[in-house]
Prior knowledge:
The chain has nine helices and no strands. The chain is mainly alpha-helical. The radius of gyration is 20 Å and the shape is globular. The protein starts with a helix and ends in an 11-residue tail after the last helix.
Amino acid sequence: MPVDYLRSLTAVERSRRANVHLGLSLCFIAGAINAGGFLAIGTYTSHMTGVVSSMADELVLGRWSLARLGLASLLSFMVGSATSSVLINWARRLRSRHEYALPLMLEAILLLMFGLLGALQHGIGNLVMLTAMLLCFIMGLQNAMITKVSHAEIRTTHVTGLVTDIGIELGKLVYWNQGSAASSQPRIEANRSKLRLHASLVLSFFVGGVVGALGFQHAGYIATLPLALALAVLSSGTLMPRGQTPRRAG
């Protein structure tokens, strides 16, 4: 049943299948938001490595306003991560089954606000810092949520760590275990499951980026509305009362 599947994605009782499917979905959305955000304000908002490096460059060049923008983005990402942690831990204390759905629903609402605000104003004008802070908050919120869900196995808002892990596993894959059978040293073997997972996450982020860039280029801010709807759908499973699962006809 579709409702049962949606419920499994944000259920407290986790399975690796649910983690992978949720991670792939969120990677796609993060890639789309990141690419669309770049077209909106000229900067990426999903990874803090570039933000911190940019802050250092702008400070050296004396561009104080851009350095402040970087600092605001960094702090917003951190606050978004903290907010996700607070929501999840608060729900756990209440023994609520919505602990993973709440951050996703908040992300959907904030993304909807971003899209509607931009569409109504036909652009962000001089609201670059506010927009960057909002998008970074959203990215931090999402990344902390999937990190807690998967016990840090899956990250969705940046691909540096994913690509590093792919490289490590590829190195293991091509390693020649010469004489290892007769040696006391263990064989070097690649974790093929991890390799497939991380390659799939990177591909999902890339495809999301392409879709997000195309959508924003041709439809503008309204292109964020389907992303907000997708997040709302992902979070809807555990938010639905269990007794309201639709019956099949016949």
